[in-house]
């Protein structure tokens, strides 16, 4: 079993990944400013309060870790101003991982990041840009920084996120020609992340995850 560091562990995909990793028997260090309030009980869970923009916090969190899941998010209200969290946190994380000798990184970005932007349907393109443009420009910078690193990385680009339990019925689109937007439960994204940590089936690649495709 692996010892995982989940950055952004207090909510969303990060919290679902903590749950899925614990259910699979892994040890998990849950990193977030509000980590102390994570309402889970498991002997393999370590809550680690910290700031993803703090180099000392991140360096301390990497001690004894086998793999890192970066699952950061910003509140919806912050999407309409400058967004720097993804790139700034990655500029802290990557050199810290390289120094610590932790090579495996699964980074959650999103459909529309990097070379998947061209796959956004024409009806979705304008509203996507208006709402998510600043955040996804920063996610582009996040991915570019990771690509320049020496790490064994995988980019997980989920479509439109939904709640609810994992279904196990989703598609892993690993060829650019197959990329399309769609709905997917956060819990399904987490299940894929935990499986990828074990199987390492997409190292150095980006995958799009969807359950139900959206109309173009």
Automatic annotation (TrEMBL):
Classification via InterPro entries: NAD(P)-bd_dom, NAD(P)-bd_dom_sf
SUPFAM superfamilies the UniProt entry points to: NAD(P)-binding Rossmann-fold domains (SSF51735)
Residue intervals of the NAD(P)-binding domain: 8-197
UniProt superkingdom: Bacteria
The protein's name: Epimerase
Species of provenance: Methylobacterium variabile
């Amino acid at each position: 079993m692996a010892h995982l560091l989940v950055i952004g562990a207090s909510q969303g995909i990060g919290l679902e990944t903590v749950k899925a990793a614990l259910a699979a028997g892994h040890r998990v260090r849950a990193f977030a400013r509000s980590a102390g309030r994570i309402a889970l009980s498991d002997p393999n869970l370590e809550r680690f309060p910290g700031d993803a923009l703090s180099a000392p916090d991140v360096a301390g969190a990497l001690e004894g870790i086998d793999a890192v899941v970066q699952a950061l998010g910003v509140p919806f209200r912050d999407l309409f101003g400058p967004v720097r969290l993804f790139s700034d946190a990655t500029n802290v994380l990557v050199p810290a991982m390289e120094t610590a000798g932790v090579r495996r990184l699964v980074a959650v970005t999103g459909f529309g990041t990097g070379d998947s932007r061209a796959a956004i349907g024409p009806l979705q393109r304008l509203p996507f840009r208006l709402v998510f443009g600043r955040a996804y420009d920063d996610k582009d910078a996040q991915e570019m920084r990771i690509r320049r690193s020496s790490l064994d990385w995988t980019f997980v680009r989920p479509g439109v996120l939904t709640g609810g339990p994992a279904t196990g019925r989703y598609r892993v689109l690993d060829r650019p020609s197959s990329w399309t937007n769609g709905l997917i439960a956060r819990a399904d994204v987490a299940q894929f992340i935990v499986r990828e940590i074990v199987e390492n089936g997409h190292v150095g690649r980006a995958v799009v995850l969807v359950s139900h495709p959206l109309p173009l």
